[in-house]
Amino acid sequence: MNIDQIQDSIIEEFELFEQWFDKYEYLIDLGKNLPVIDDAYKTDDNLIRGCQSRVWLHAEMNNGTVQFTADSDAVITRGIIALLIRVLAGQKPGDIANAQLYFIDAIGLREHLSSTRANGLVSMVNTLQSIGRDFSRAH
Amino acid sequence: MRAQFPLLSRRVHAQPLVYLDNGATAQKPQRVIDAIESYYRERNANIHRGAHHLSQEATTAYEAARETVRAHLNAAHAHEMLFTSGTTAAINTVASAWGGANLNAGDEVIVSTMEHHSNIVPWQLVAEQRGASVKELRISRGGELRMEELDAMLSERVKMVALTHVSNVLGTVNPARDIIERAHAHGALVLLDGAQAAPHLRIDVRALDVDFYAFSGHKVFGPTGVGVLYGKEKLLDAMPPYQGGGEMIERVTFARTTFAALPHKFEAGTPNIVGGIGLGVALDWLAQLDAEALAAHEKDLLDYATAKLNAIDGVTIFGEAAHKACVLSFLLAGTHPFDVGAILDQLGIAVRTGHHCAQPLMEFYDTPGMVRASFALYNNRADVDALVAGVERAASMLV
Ligand SMILES: Cc1ncc(COP(=O)(O)O)c(C=O)c1O
């Protein structure tokens, strides 16, 4: 699936949730199941700036597409990064850099985060997309 | 009581608001809101300068507020009450103006592990400039100052002891009178950061014999952007001005400028007039309440909330001082404070999560943050019950 197809299917999934608690439970589940990042990559260099909880992100190229692993010490944050990775992982760097991530507002993610968390979300998105940009320049 | 606070009846995320972030800022009674509105509708003018009637009225109201603040703190003179923009500005004024003139190489300023950043960083800045140093008075695990270490630290090098009166995280009410006696015995001055004390305690600066006292209007049910620095007259008189500008001068020439008398020397520029007036109204409002009944109510809430939270599996409360204000900071084992805060928020419960501007304290307890529920006089046992149910819900989702 391309990025927009994945976004559309996430939007569809979220339509099934009636309450924000269901969405949180879903994020918490995603967070708990996020494949853990190799400890070697949990370095200060891989910390995303601007998040109040700590978020580590590692990216590498694999056959022309970008693979991400991540972790956070807060589980809802881990769920959010897992969701972003679900949309962007396995895609070409140029597509990642240019993606319009409309699903974030469509599922109401931003409005249900405290402002500090929402800033963290922006930092995560910016970091993922700038990795896409860096890789597309390099390859 | 709650009916006097319009905001408390609103809903958040379709749930009735449970406001437990009073340590960050308190809600405002209708009286304060009315005073702010009526000031702009009926009285707005600049003070101390216009020759016209409106300016007179505004000046009178502003100076009456200063007198209210004086009475509230039982200070000797209204001109010892300087209006600032808040606690932060008040502490910076002392650090910069008093510290800049009085701290010298080798001198020491004592602050404690439990300080808010606004009672650490200003001292670090001036200490750096003056070659002085900032020393940490440590605390016990239970969250009380190690008074025996204070005695060992006090020497003729110590010029200032700057401590919080009540901890914004632990709720600890520090033994102010005792600290001041010990510091004075060694010739050191004492500044108390009263940001968290003013909403909970009656403060008597003369009984305390404190040298400087700082607090914020917005935490005592007044407006934001206004606060108070109390300083003893002789100290304020001897201090150079903090900021220069209008209002604070006697006569300006390019050869030499002389400064206005207290309090104007420290109030450069047009102040937060409506803020000062609103603060006066808030303190008048507080003063007519039964202080003993309020203290008993807050003590009941604290005991009730402590027992209920402690009964939840995995909850650890930080701050076990014998004398404690109504503040509860805690962690839920196996969870991050942000996650707990996010779930409480969905339930309409406003708490604060994070480091609470007290990173040295977070380091002391070896945690990136805590969840803090901070209560005010309008909170009740139902708020505690909502909090407890919320934390239980968070535990069931997160753990
Ligand atoms: C103990 C303490 N000191 C200082 C401050 C700073 O107050 P303000 O931001 O109103 O200047 C606070 C506010 O959170 C506080 O809790």
Report on the structure:
The complex is a heterodimer of chains A (139) and B (399). The relative contact order of chain A is 0.19. Chain A is globular and about 45 Å long. A two-stranded antiparallel ribbon of chain A has the order 1-2. In chain A, helix 2 packs across helix 3 and helix 3 (75-88) packs parallel to helix 6 (115-138). The two termini of chain A are 22 Å apart. Chain A contains six helices and two strands, in the order H-H-E-E-H-H-H-H. Chain A is mainly α. Chain A is 54% helix and 12% strand. Chain A has a single domain, classed as Sufe protein. Chain: A, CATH 3.90.1010.10. Chain B is of the alpha/beta class and 399 residues long. Chain B folds into two domains: 2-22 and 291-398, Aspartate Aminotransferase, domain 1 (Alpha-Beta Complex), CATH 3.90.1150.10; 45-287, Type I PLP-dependent aspartate aminotransferase-like (Major domain) (Aspartate Aminotransferase, domain 2, 3-Layer(aba) Sandwich). The longest helix of chain B is centred in the N-terminal third of the chain and has 21 residues, at 53-73. The structure holds pyridoxal-5'-phosphate. Pyridoxal-5'-phosphate (PLP) is lined by residues 86-88, 116, 118-119, 164, 168, 193, 195-196, 216, 357 of chain B. Pyridoxal-5'-phosphate (PLP) binds at residues 86-88, 116, 118-119, 164, 168, 193, 195-196, 216, 357 of chain B.
- The name CATH uses for the topology of chain A is Sufe protein. Chain: A
Tally of domains of chain B: 2
Mean pLDDT of chain A: 90
Oligomer: heterodimer
Largest binding interface between chains: A-B, 18 and 15 residues
Overall pLDDT of chain B? 96
Secondary-structure-based class of chain B equals alpha/beta
**Total strand count of chain B, please?**
17
Specify the helix fraction band of chain A.
40-55%
Bound molecules: pyridoxal-5'-phosphate
